[in-house]
UniProtKB/TrEMBL annotation, chain A:
It holds the Pfam family ORC5_lid. Component of ORC, a complex composed of at least 6 subunits: ORC1, ORC2, ORC3, ORC4, ORC5 and ORC6. ORC is regulated in a cell-cycle dependent manner. It is sequentially assembled at the exit from anaphase of mitosis and disassembled as cells enter S phase. Residues 21-167 form the Orc1-like AAA ATPase domain. Keywords: ATP-binding, DNA replication, Nucleotide-binding, Nucleus. The keyword Calcium does not apply. It comes from Ptilorrhoa leucosticta. It comes from the Eukaryota. GO terms for cellular component: nuclear origin of replication recognition complex. This is Origin recognition complex subunit 5. One of its GO terms (biological process) is DNA replication initiation. Component of the origin recognition complex (ORC) that binds origins of replication. DNA-binding is ATP-dependent. The specific DNA sequences that define origins of replication have not been identified yet. ORC is required to assemble the pre-replication complex necessary to initiate DNA replication.
UniProtKB/TrEMBL annotation, chain B:
This is Origin recognition complex subunit 3. CDD domains: Orc3. Keywords: Coiled coil, DNA replication, DNA-binding, Nucleus, Phosphoprotein. The gene is Orc3. Residues 574-686 form the Origin recognition complex subunit 3 winged helix C-terminal domain. Component of ORC, a complex composed of at least 6 subunits: ORC1, ORC2, ORC3, ORC4, ORC5 and ORC6. ORC is regulated in a cell-cycle dependent manner. It is sequentially assembled at the exit from anaphase of mitosis and disassembled as cells enter S phase. It comes from the Eukaryota. Residues 5-320 form the Origin recognition complex subunit 3 N-terminal domain. It comes from Ptilorrhoa leucosticta. Residues 463-490 form a coiled coil. Its main location: nucleus.
Amino acid sequence: MPNLEHPAYPAADLLHLESLVPCRESQVSMLLSIFGERQQFSIPSIFIYGHTSSGKTYVMQTLLTTLQLPHVFVNCVEYFTSRLLLEEILLQLQSCSSEPEQTSPVHCDTLNDFVRLFKQAVASRELQDQTIYIVLDRAEQLREMEANILPAFLRLQELTDRNVTVVLLSEIVWELFRPNVGCFEPFTMYFPDYSIGHLQKILSQNHPPEYSADFYSAYINILLGVFYMVCRDLKELRHLAALNFAKYCEPVVRGEANERDTRKLWKNIEPHLKKAMQTVYLREISSSQWERLQHDGGEPGQLKGLSAHTHVELPYYSKFLLIAAYLASYNPVRTDKRFFLKHHGKIRKTNFMKKHEKTSNHLLGPKPFPLDRLLAILYSIVDNRVAPTANIFSQITSLVTLQLLSMVGQNDQLDGPRYKCTVSLDFIRAIAR
Amino acid sequence: AHDFRSRSDDSEDTELRFITCQSLWNQIKSETEQIQEDLNKQLLDNLVSFLSRSHSQFQEKMTEWTCRMKFREIPTAALVLGVNVTDHDLTFRGLSDVLQDNITPYIALLEAKDCPGIKNLMQKLMGQLMNCDIDVDSLEDEDCVQVSQNRIRCSMSSLISWYESVTKKTDSETPSKKRNSSSRHWQSPPVVVILKDMESFTTKVLQDFIVISSQHIHELPLVLIFGIATSPMIIHRLLPHSVSSLLCIELFQSLSCKEHLSTIIDKLLLTSRFPFKLGEKVLQVLINIFLYHDFSVQNFIKGFQLCIVEHFYSEPLSVLCCQLVDVKKRVYSLSHDQCENIRRLPSFRRYVEKQDSGKQIELLTNDSFLKEETEKLLEDLHVYHENYVSILRCLHVFTSSLPKYPLGKQIRELHCACLENRVWETEEYESSLQLARMLNKTDLVTMLQQCVEILMSSSGKEFDKTVEKLKEFLTQFQNLEAEASQERDVSVSSQKELQKKTDLYHLQKTLLELKESRRSKKLTKFEMLRFEVVDYIDSLVRKYLVPADDRTLHEIMYFNAATVLRGHLNAAPRTALHTALNNPHWYLKNQALKCDGGGISNKAPDICIVYKLHLECGRLINLVDWLEAFSTVVMAAEEPNADAASSDQVDDIIHARFIRAVSELELLGFIKPSKQKTDHVARLTWGGC
């Protein structure tokens, strides 16, 4: 295991840092060696990528704060326009400077302004001989901003002529970022997923004060055994661990088993965890409901999840409209005559073909159909006569807003609008009953 | 919007009718609001307790280990409201009022159409939140500098700083005031964001918003409320797991709209409180619109309002449609014209014909005698209503528990059946009586008890006897129980006999005997009693559930113009358009346009001619041919001798008229230019509607 060593920083700080970022030592030491000493110029831009919760944000943040490097940390989802983003960076720069004088709101509309204001902000501080780090979390959002933002951030050091390093954090690879026109290539770095051993180690680190570390790590072992197959998200796992720990402790609290009685505890918790995987993990029932359920000792079966409420009550004609739309979406046009006309020949021959077509059509997904066809099918499946009143037409629109139908092609309404039916066969079956 | 005074003569009490109409509507409106409030109460209470729970928990045990370990999810209420989107507004308004009173002053209502992007959503959110606290300073409509400052604020961090400043302000207020406010809100009230129509939001906006707000949940106690029209599955469809795992979703279901409607009908129509009544056909139209089209209770009430307005507007005698106390005064102040109106009523004419000749003359000539008689009849009508409602409920108690519901499950169906014609003459009634004669004892007893309760609570005075009779039945049933045990003994003994005889021949014989005796045996006492009860109920029905059409002067109280209502509520734009273009006389009322069926008159407006010609064409229409036909029709009126010049060369003016008419048709959406063939247009409609 590589111990963190760097001449520029005190050993105590490094030791503390190491305890904070388990299983990420190699990445941290790599970063440290790239950063160099405080006053040394570093690589203009670093691109760090890796899966969800592989510790990118956490590592960056702990690294910068424990070593007290001047930095700005911005989430690009939150500051969704370039202006907001730039202003937020400048604001944070101001606040991390030790001079208390300026807290005035900054106006920064373009990147040009940003460079100017950035220079000002840095020049006015005594820390100007240190590298400033700008961390842009969820950097994939940058691609949706103006075209010049991303390239400019990549060579900010060059543009401002100041000691600054931009760190981009993202879940996707650099290849998807690279603009067509070419740009400065950042130093890319990959954070691999935590292995099951890593997860075990990290999760066991924060054990509750009432119980011993061994006891908790045994619990984490069981938890991972159940959930590792479906979920490797550290945050989610930690959340689940906290939710179900009370249940695990139950036998111990009641005195039926002691902390070492792993087998008994396992028998107690395993079905419970499995149930949790089907409900809480999928957010079928909320975690607070789950906790209450545990507290009352009730059966989880009595609480219906979100998916249990699939039935939708629809007005009479809406039902028929939806059924007609479904038929129009999944039946080819040429069969309409056969299915919906009173007098048609050759039924027997086509029976086999019909079945064959149906399966393949369901695999292909819904096809768009014009309004006229929908209405024609509607008229033929409703027993009594339907007047084409405004009510019928408005129901089509309301079905679209309910996302049961969807409009295809955004062209003129008068121009023969086309729709698609977006509901499943099960839904239609439930309605048609 | 409805000008009653447009009718010049005041002999028909227009003024008074207007006032009556308004007061009646106001009563009904407040009544419906009350009903809706009561119906939503349960839901709102649940929501309020959820909201109060959601953040207080976190504040209390912030230090606990489990709370530190769990990451904080955004508490979210998924509110399933049903597909009647038009009713949701009212619910949300009620909800935000309740929340404002109990939980928090910070509420934002967001609609999907205002939020095409995350930026708009934030703007809207902040605008609503910050305004709700300080109404005075208008952030929006200020000069340029103000706007640019305003734009900076449009991020979560500024929202948080705003929230901090606001909560701090309430903390530093004077103690008395603070106590006042803390009794209603807590130290840091949650910020409630209501997304009215979850389905219409785009996935990206929702995701971004949830991700952003989950990052700041520690500083800004946010609560989301999703208004869902279809099913909660939509949450999973809109949000990926990575986002929905940031939420702590609890489900709340509002009352089904059908139940809502039943309550409304129960409280508004099946009561003698309001003099105004709906006729059978009208009620059927309203219910059909509800069930077939929109499920919207609001629309039902609007339709009801339209009925009231239409009734008071079109029926001069509706002035008498008021509470019983006012009837006398109003009857005596009727003008002569109004008396004539009464005499013209069909139901009144029927009534007169039944009287003896002396009274007939009196009624038809003497105004004051007529007025006396009218008053009496109106009182009768009021009494009839009171009795009708109670007996209808009793009958419903019986019919609603029968298998297959021959008379309908809901009381509204029964009500319609009773209004339509004499219910006891219908087959369904017959079959339901048959079924009622087969009810078992416990059911029958509970039903009778329910009936007694209904009749006791009704205000009608005639029911003392009925109640007594029903109670008598009940005691008889109780007496039966004692007798029944004796009877059981008898049957047991006969069975014992049966067991004794082992001989096959004898066994057969006794069995036959037993069967014979059973067939010929008189009905048991219970069966007799059951018949009696059913017959008694039948007699009640025949006496009290006479359809309203048979009552004299029913026109005053009942609104029956179903066709008018249908015309107003069931708009048929395409049919109307077709009528207008196909038969312009219908709207223009110009005698010259009156056409004789199939022919195309050349006096009709150009667009009508063009429309009729296009009906004869196929999917693609050749413009040249069309123009040719048009000019032929138009020229038909002019002297036929002028044809030499115009036969091959179409007149410029006619050409221009044609082009205008065609472009008008295009505007109306009947045709569109086609790319398949040059100088052709495509038809967009089919059939003649």
